[in-house]
Amino acid sequence: MNRFKDRDMQVIIGWILRAGVTISMLIVFIGGVIFVYRHGQSIPDYRKFKGVPYFIHNTSGVINGVLNFKGQAIIQFGIMLLIATPILRVAFSAIGFILEKDYLYTALTIVVLLIILASMLSGQAG
Amino acid sequence: MSVIVFTAILLLGSYFAGLLGSLTGLGGGFIIIPLLTLLLKVDIHYAIGASLVSVIATSSGSAAAYVKEGITNIRLGMFLEIATTAGAFTGAILAIYVPTQFIAILFGLILVFSAIMSLKPKAEHIIHKETYLSKKLKLGGSYPMNDEVVEYSVTNIAGGFFMMAFAGIISGLLGIGSGALKVVAMDGMMRIPFKVSTTTSNFMIGVTAAASAVVYFQRGYIHPGLAMPVVIGVLLGAVSGSKILVNTSSSTWLRWVFAVVVTLLSIQMIYNGIEGKI
């Protein structure tokens, strides 16, 4: 059996990044078309910070909106996938380092994942 | 201004921002944030959110291509990502408490610095002496160039690590890739060959931006109506930019034009920040 090498990791990482960007951008585009088609004539106001519309203010709201073909919810879902893409890349690197039996780098990669997790939880707390 | 006109303007503006950002290597965020805040009067938090999303898209897209060529040093990137993600997390938390005026001024200053950095000629340096830490962390590497394999090593790891943490804070606070600061750390301090530092820095930008984007997203800074045209426009612009072959003489010319534009924008940002108009 061939040992898992750095070269394999590079190919798979490249693939994850490409697929993640392509899929999420397609979703954002579809959501954008629906949004502009339905709300093209309304007047947006981004001068004052008011957060996002209430129906997409959390994950379950976004999922619900996607199921109801709401343009802004679909865009938001695509953006969630886009943000997840590099994080997924890191998670995969951790698996790759385990397969390479490089435990030092497995640990370092897990530290990066923990920092991102902490960041995620801190956003939820506020 | 209706949604359809607003979206069209943003798409076009973001396309050119992505194109210029890719041709000069500074990234699209530098034009997006002034475009949104100065021209379209968008709140700076929304502008940062939209820019951050476009940073993730362009860096992940181009990293996919670079990684396959085998120049990106994945171990080095992974190690330094500890510093950049911790910094980005800190920056995103700071962004909540720091007054928007100060953010605008800081943005202007970083903008000027990056423009100057992009004009500086790049000196290539390859070192071979292995330090204890570099050996322990397996940070050295090699990359292919004209059928040859170039070996290199890394120095001043602690200094580079702290500089990276600072780059992460700036990225999280301002919603930009802060590639110029990463180059200072990797080229200037750690003495990494230019080809490796550019691709590895680009590789890290996506994760760094994602670490602060998770905070921005939950706080409602990422508005779909703004992020949609910005991310599509910047990405398409960056893709076109990578297809255009720029010869060295016109690249120097382009850098100067960009530096002048960026300096004018940053003066505007700083002025508006001081006046409290942002």
Quick take:
Chain A is an all-alpha fold and 126 residues long. Chain A has helices at residues 6-39, 59-67, 71-99, 103-125.
Radius of gyration of chain A: 19 Å
The low-pLDDT segments of chain A are: none
- Write down the Rg of chain B: 18 Å
Strand order of the largest sheet of chain B: 1-2
General description of the model:
The complex is a heterodimer of chains A (126) and B (278). Chain A is mainly α. Chain A has one domain (6-125). Chain A has 4 helices and no strands. In chain A, helix 1 runs antiparallel to helix 3, helix 2 packs across helix 3 and helix 3 (71-99) runs antiparallel to helix 4 (103-125). The N and C termini of chain A lie far apart (50 Å). The model of chain A has no long low-confidence stretch (mean pLDDT 92). Chain B is mostly helical. Chain B has one domain. Helix content of chain B is 76%, strand content 4%. Chain B contains 11 helices and 2 strands. Chain B has helices at 3-24, 29-39, 44-69, 74-97, 100-119, 132-136, 157-174, 179-189, 194-218, 224-243, 248-275; strands at residues 141-145, 148-152. In chain B, strands 1-2 form a two-stranded antiparallel sheet. In chain B, strand 1 (141-145) and strand 2 (148-152) form a beta hairpin. Chain B is globular. The two termini of chain B are 20 Å apart. The mean pLDDT of chain B is 89. Chains A and B meet through helix 1, helix 3 and helix 4 of A and helix 1, helix 3, helix 4, helix 9 and helix 10 of B.
